[in-house]
Amino acid sequence: AQSVTQLDSQVPVFEEAPVELRCNYSSSVSVYLFWYVQYPNQGLQLLLKYLSGSTLVKGINGFEAEFNKSQTSFHLRKPSVHISDTAEYFCAVSEGVTGGGNKLTFGTGTQLKVEL
Amino acid sequence: GAVVSQHPSWVICKSGTSVKIECRSLDFQATTMFWYRQFPKQSLMLMATSNEGSKATYEQGVEKDKFLINHASLTLSTLTVTSAHPEDSSFYICSAALSGGVTYEQYFGPGTRLTVT
Lengths: 116, 117
What we know:
Helix content of chain B: under 10%
Structural class of chain A: mainly beta
Shape of chain B: globular
Largest sheet of chain A: 6 strands, mixed
Oligomer: heterodimer
Strand content of chain B: over 45%
Number of strands of chain B: 11
Helix content of chain A: under 10%
Distance between the termini of chain A: 41 Å
Order of helices and strands of chain A: EEEEEEEEEEEE
Largest sheet of chain B: 7 strands, mixed
């Protein structure tokens, strides 16, 4: 069975500072990895995904993540955050080789709070 | 593209009544749709996987007679909370996966806030 651990429940950071949100996963097979963002009272928006190929994945809003198979990690980074980045961020993993019909397992989420 | 809508966005109902939530894929066909439940400041918990034209597959601990799921077409899945009680109050989110898609991702709806009084 797959699982996802987000080590930080909250991450406060000042505007224009860099940020890293940590994500580790556990799985016995190859996985697909995702980061989603959720703004208050809204659904989830995909930030980026790793399916295969280059381990450095670039997403929307200036975010990027690096897949590290040996450390089973998929940390999310942004070099300079903005107030508007304040939101909940979820890391998720999917197993299997078929399409999006596979189940996603989510981490517990990290609340990113950007302060002036 | 790949927009998923939910209706209603919020609903208040009395204890003992039933509530139906719709999930629609607006610009694509979705063979598979998922229903999640999210409690305040918590993660999403998968309730069930819904495949068009077949019975939904429920996760362990989810009462299938209480949370009725119907996926009658490639663009619509519904979740009916029957005999709702205050403990059913939650944020319900659906997602849809592209039919035959190769993007290996789910597209999420905006969620439905259910409050049972």
